[in-house]
Amino acid sequence: NKTKVLNLLSVSVLSVSAAVMASSPAVLMRLVASAYTVAEKAGTIVRKVLQSGELGIVEKTGANDLQTLADRLVQKSICASLSKSFPKVTIIGEEELPAEDAEEELLENGHSSLILQKSCPDQYASLKEEELVVWVDPLDGTKEYTEGLLDHVTVLIGIAYGGTAIAGVINQPFYNYQMGAGASLGRTLWGVLGLGAFGFQLQEVPDGKRIVTTTRSHSNKLVIDAVQAMEPHDVIRVGGAGNKIIQLVEGKASAYVFASPGCKKWDTCAPEAILHAVGGKLTDMHGNAYRYDANVKHMNSAGVLATLRNHEYYLSRVPQVVLQALPSD
User: Sorted alphabetically, which SUPFAM superfamilies does this protein's record hold (predicted)?
Assistant: First the structure.
């Protein structure tokens, strides 16, 4: 009888631990849920630095490649917070900063309970921390930030597995800033492949209308030639890769065209994941996917072409001179 009771006890303990395992959120969903609150904190830091009036601007490689105090504080906050909760995840940030402990006030250890309630797509349910790579752009649209074009500014946290961008979080610190004092400031968008994207209203440009969004401050003849070849009805020139992808998913633009090697993996990882989660596509100008493994080169050297629909049409319009000038990796 004693043996029977012990057997029953061990079976029930196993059942309970199996149930706990089954009900505890997958690593990916926990990482996304943490990245969400970390991105919200980042947005608060970005606003505080602007309010202080002390932007602490440094030129990295020239007047179009700036770094501010907000870039430095936000990267420290994101990387330290996520490293603390997920020590085995590889985290790659844009800014080259000295290795030092982050101040306590920069750390964020909360998580979005709404995200944790969602089911992880089956193909990612058993991923381990060490299989994930996080790409961080602490302040996308830094030049615009310094010039007061605040709606162009985003904070980007992209998550990759097996070289593919599978989840992303985008915070817009100044969303609604032109709506007056009573408006709620800032918002956070997020998405996971196979689950969808949230935090915004998905819209499309009306059929037959081609609106191209492209760079505001990094233009050149190749970029102009590529944009014109799309035969757009309108062209929107704005800063920030994150901002341009938001233009696509909110129906303000039908294609993001950047025929230049200017942007990097941390610019595109989070936006690509959100775009792909709603059925869009981001490639280089040849139509090849970018890889986000920990050891890839950071530059997206063959440019960026992103669409919500009709990707093949835009690819077919890329001029030969552009393809020759931007060899695919």
Answer: Carbohydrate phosphatase
